[in-house]
Task: inverse folding
């Protein structure tokens, strides 16, 4: 099936609710603008760019801690769901086979069993349908919005309190059993859900064993000879320590696993109704 513009009769209507978030970890709920594109339901949070210290001293691949500056961007409020990904597969059945849901259910659960290539293909398809630029976040962008202005191991503090996430030992009814519907837990201070657990999220970057000579401008690390891609945030079957904002993992770009999904970011443009306010 060709990648043509979708007709209004064949798609769901997408309202992207855009919330302005400043780099000082405060939410400004009145700073809101809406616009519509015709693909699937998806909410994005506007995150004001800023500088932060990326990494930690906990593990070798999180070192050295270094200063990074990230630009403004829109961040998916939720991980991409089965509803959204299944709509994509329905539109291009020759190119996309609906991923297995492990009999946990589809709908509002985060899509799983998708590779890094699958996630990028979805973002490219969505970009073509809407005329806006959707993509995976870079690793630096991901850590910036996951931290949400905090410097503690978790956005919630020095330790992960029970009931704040879905992981192997997080105190939820889904722990070490399955994914949870997106948004089942409290969001971080920038109103972004499930940055800790549920599914581990693909990012753009190739994996390196440390941050030596890492970019300081928020750009992705791309190594053409490296098939391993970074994943962030931990998942329903990960230990709480692996849900830290700085924790890293990786898998081969073509791997499909029952604990991995993704979240999109949307690049700002003159066509987006961004509300700007001071910090």
Result:
């Amino acid at each position: 099936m060709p990648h043509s513009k979708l007709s209004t009769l064949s798609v769901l209507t997408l309202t992207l609710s855009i919330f302005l978030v400043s780099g000082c970890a405060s939410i400004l709920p009145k700073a809101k603008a809406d616009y519509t594109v015709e693909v699937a339901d998806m909410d994005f949070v506007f995150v004001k760019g800023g500088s932060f210290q990326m990494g930690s001293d906990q593990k070798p691949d999180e070192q050295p801690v270094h200063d990074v500056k990230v630009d403004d961007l829109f961040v998916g409020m939720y991980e991409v769901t089965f509803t959204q990904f299944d709509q994509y597969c329905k539109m291009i059945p020759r190119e996309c086979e609906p991923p297995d849901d492990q009999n946990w259910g589809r709908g509002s659960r985060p899509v799983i069993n998708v590779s890094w290539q699958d996630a990028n293909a979805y973002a490219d398809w969505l970009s073509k349908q809407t005329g806006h630029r959707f993509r995976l976040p870079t690793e630096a962008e991901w850590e910036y919005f996951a931290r949400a202005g905090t410097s503690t191991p978790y956005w919630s503090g020095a330790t992960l309190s029970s009931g704040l996430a879905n992981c192997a030992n997080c105190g939820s009814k889904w722990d070490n059993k399955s994914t949870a519907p997106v948004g089942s837990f409290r969001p971080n201070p920038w109103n972004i859900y499930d940055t800790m657990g549920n599914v581990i999220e693909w990012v753009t970057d190739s994996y390196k064993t440390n941050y030596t000579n890492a970019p300081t401008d928020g750009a992705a690390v791309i190594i053409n000879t490296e098939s391993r891609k970074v994943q962030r945030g931990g998942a329903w079957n990960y230990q709480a320590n692996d849900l830290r904002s700085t924790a890293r993992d990786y898998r081969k770009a073509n791997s499909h696993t029952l604990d991995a999904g993704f979240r999109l970011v949307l690049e700002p443009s003159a066509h987006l109704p961004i509300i700007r306010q001071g910090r």
About this structure: Residues 14-266 form a domain with the paralog of FGE (formylglycine-generating enzyme) fold (CATH 3.90.1580.10). DSSP finds three helices and twelve strands in the chain. The first strand starts at residue 14 and ends at 21.
